[in-house]
Amino acid sequence: MKASHFLLLIFCLLGANLMAQYEPGDSTEKRPFAIIETIEGDEFEGYLIYQDTKIITIEDRNGHQITIKVEQIKELSFEQETFSKAVHYNLQASRYFFGPNALNMKRGEGYYQNNWVFLNQLSVGLSDRFTIGVGTIPLFIFGYGAPTPVWITPKFSVPIVPGKLNVAAGGLFGSVLGDEFNNTFGIGYGAFTLGDYDKNVTLSIGYGMSDGDWSENPTISLSGMLRVTRKFYLITENYLVFDTFIASLGGRTVWREVSLDYGFFTLPDEIDALIPWLGITVPFDLKKE
Which range is the signal sequence, renumbered to this chain (predicted)? Predict the structure, then answer.
């Protein structure tokens, strides 16, 4: 074999590993899912269409093709995932700091949420449209009979225009347990969410309840979420309770096994101080267990 033929054979063998090409219409099961971070800090995700030693082309969730030069890539990984899993390992995207939006979790998806150590909640999707949560502030650890709030948070979500408009109805209903306490409390609400899991705005209107008596005045909430990078979300959650305005601003950093919420709340008409908010969330997927 001539040396030139031998070198051509080697190049072809190497090229088989360095080049890949798929058609946009190919099944996603056949195409690797690429996650790309560029030197400039931009992040892209999509199914692989073409790759060689100079460029890589992917198809994003909207069907758009994106071509990036290899020399501009800081980090490239291929994962056996889809958009719904890779992007939504932020499974708690169905809520803001604490208040919900009208987006849903899938059946079997869930998370455990803890804020400031004492506020605990566990939520899980029983179907693709119905979510249930249970929560408590375990004050009983400070002594027998200490008043301990417990609650449930049902939510039913309906996509009107998938990825653009969702509506939901739900509530938080609970009781304060203890030797001398058996008070009930809650709020029922309706929510309207414009946007998707990466960027959305939610208007909620609810009525509070205490010991069976419902408020005549609504509580209004206007909240939003914006995905800035693959791991960082900007969050704001704001309330008008009677004549009191409560505002907040902060963020959420998401890793695969845990996420961190941080920010502050304030009552601008009442106090000048900022009240810090800190919480962790551990997502899980019962379908994988």
Answer: 1-22
Q: What pTM was estimated for this model as a whole? A: 0.71
Pick from 116, 172, 169: which is nearest to 149 by CA? 172
CATH of the domain at 16: 2.30.30.100
Chain segment 130-187, per-residue pLDDT in tens: 999 999 998 877 766 678 899 999 999 999 998 899 999 999 999 998 757 668 999 9
Q: Which amino acid is it at 30?
A: K
Residue-number span of the structural domain to which 19 is assigned = 3-80
Contacts of 92 (CB under 8 A, 6+ apart): 111, 113, 123, 259, 281, 283
DSSP states along 216-247: SS-EEEEEEEEE-SSSEEEEEEEEEETTEEEE
Cα distance between the two ends of the chain:
55
Side-chain half-sphere of 44: how many Cα atoms within 13 Å? Answer: 25
Say whether both 60 and 92 belong to one domain: no
- Domain final residue, candidates 80, 114, 129: 80
Shared domain for 21 and 132, answered yes or no, is no
Q: pLDDT tens across 17-38, in order? A: 445 666 655 555 667 888 888 8
